[in-house]
Specification:
single chain, 203 residues, mainly beta, five-stranded antiparallel beta sheet, 6% helix
């Protein structure tokens, strides 16, 4: 699965499994939301979760679309919300993604796998996305302020390190004099806060 550094229209990092929104291009332009299945150069492959309309020529639940980064916006990181699957209203079955490349869905006790179009046809389009809150960080992860990459010794802050779970975590005890992130250049001991939104203009 191809992976590259990607940012949304506001410059925020986008990673696989993050929950994003975006506007498709082309004749049947529409706004969709869903998890990122794959990132590429300047674009992301997104699984549609907000459009249950049957019979529409636009992308519907279960379809995948590629959206350019300038049309993407981050809704929730994968550490906040996790896409579980689709639930059918008729029988209450939960259908999970079994094959990312071909976008096939499966459900326990059902021998066959279905494409998104077949699944929508089976339930007249009435399949709806199920999201769950991701578990919070462990006590050890909560103390982590940066990660060190073995071999190079490079240090990256939590925001810049996309493969954090793969690298040794560093606490403030490990960096008594602080340390600069090799990605963004900030001192990893200084808490980072998102930029405040500008105040609404009033006339």
């Amino acid at each position: 699965m191809t992976s590259s550094r990607l940012t949304d229209a506001a410059g925020r990092a986008i990673n696989e499994h993050d929950h994003v929104g975006g506007t498709t291009s082309g004749r049947y332009q529409t706004t969709i939301t869903g998890p990122v299945l794959q990132t590429g150069k300047g674009k992301a492959k997104v699984l549609v979760t907000n459009r249950p309309q049957p019979g529409s020529p636009r992308a519907a639940n279960g379809d995948t679309v590629w959206i350019s980064s300038d049309r993407l916006f981050l809704l929730h990181t994968a550490t906040e919300k996790k896409f579980t699957g689709y639930r059918s209203h008729e029988d209450g079955r939960l259908w999970t993604l079994a094959n990312v490349r071909d976008t096939l869905f499966e459900s326990p006790m059902v021998p066959a796998r279905y494409t998104a179009a077949s699944l929508r046809a089976l339930y007249q389009g009435q399949i709806h996305a199920v999201w769950t809150d991701a578990p919070g960080p462990t006590a050890e992860q909560d103390r982590t302020v940066a990660y060190r990459v073995p071999g190079t010794g490079s240090v990256y802050c939590v925001a810049c390190c996309h493969g954090g779970a793969l690298f040794p975590g560093l606490s403030s005890d490990d960096l008594p004099d602080g340390g600069l992130c090799d990605g963004c250049g900030v001192d990893v001991l200084i808490p980072q806060h998102p930029n405040p939104r500008p105040a609404a203009r009033t006339s």
